[in-house]
Amino acid sequence: MSSNWSSKRGDIHLKGNPVRVPLAKSVSLVLTLLPSLLLGQSPPNAISQEHRPRAREIGLRVGILAPGRLNAITDVPGVRVGQATLIRGDTIRTGVTAILPHSGNLFRDKVPAAIHVGNGFGKLMGSTQVSELGEIETPILLTSTLNVPRVADALIEYMLALPGNEDVRSINPVVAETNDGLLNDIRSRPVGREEVFQAIRRAGQGPVEEGSVGAGTGTVAFGFKGGIGTSSRVLLESRGGYTIGVLVQTNFGGVLTINGAPVGRSLHRFLMQEDVDQKPAGGSAESDRGDGSIIIVVATDAPVDARNLRRLAARAMLGLGRTGSPSTNGSGDYVIAFSTAQELRIRSVQSSSRAALRILSNEEMTPLFQAVVEATEEAIYNSLFRATTIRGMGGRVIEALPLGQTIEILKKHRALSE
Question: Which domain covers residue 39, as residue numbers?
């Protein structure tokens, strides 16, 4: 497949700065940035706004199953995603990403859910109640580490104010994080009520913005710029026709492998590089630090109960492993999985017996396991492919994955479709 996706570029000028994008993407880019421009905010990138492709745009096909129409978590009926990107001065590079299982009042209309802990070096607020009761009662919010309490407080305020929650005396906010302190002044804890409300109210069912946005604004993955990524898979009707969607916040490391190709090693940037007798000509080795975190959110419309959602969440870690992560000591690796199936909603007042409900059996889970592994792997690739170079705190610059070199490596190892 041709990789000349960057040809025929045009210029767009934002606040006097030329931005290079393909002509075909110019209109969509302006529409994407328009809300920020009208509010007088900086565009959501501290260096450039070049168009970067998703994995499939360069011919990268992960696995055997077909993606959904958007190849995003929002392919799962009812699921919405909203984001608030916070870029301020030379030091603030952070934000919030909100995942809503449905558009209603989640406290009154809860969804079955489960959490799998791959490596528990993290701060996932609300996890114990989800594990105990097997349900989620708020939107799932992703942010940076020290912002978790502030984001949770704003989420509680949002939930208490919803019509029908006037008598609510307990809310279990689900807030997950990764540490964006390399690029962001994390100690200033800039994310609060305004950003949380903005992310939730912007949540929609359409395409999901990826890369250096929302909770992924200041993250780093495999030594390159990480961020938000998403993907989906749809099963054949003979297997139920269910959709599985994944969204990731990538901020971890390892030895980057893309569709089996040794990209990290070929680019001379990977975990424990100094232990390997392979250094770039004329330069010194630059080892990936390895630590960080990843949050993986899995959604499905399949009627899966909390017990099998936990099994589904565990399989997402296999998709993470395929990308080259060993789940290092300092990496908080968490998976949050939920089902949007209407018949499994946990409502304040149950109107019918749950004994006759259709719930997938253990034997029926295998196709969903395959789907979540593939979607997780591709979502991680999308987070890297779409992320742009960012300059942040202390003048530190985290470069985006070099696409030209990466494509050549993938071609060499026959990792792209013809």
Answer: 1-43
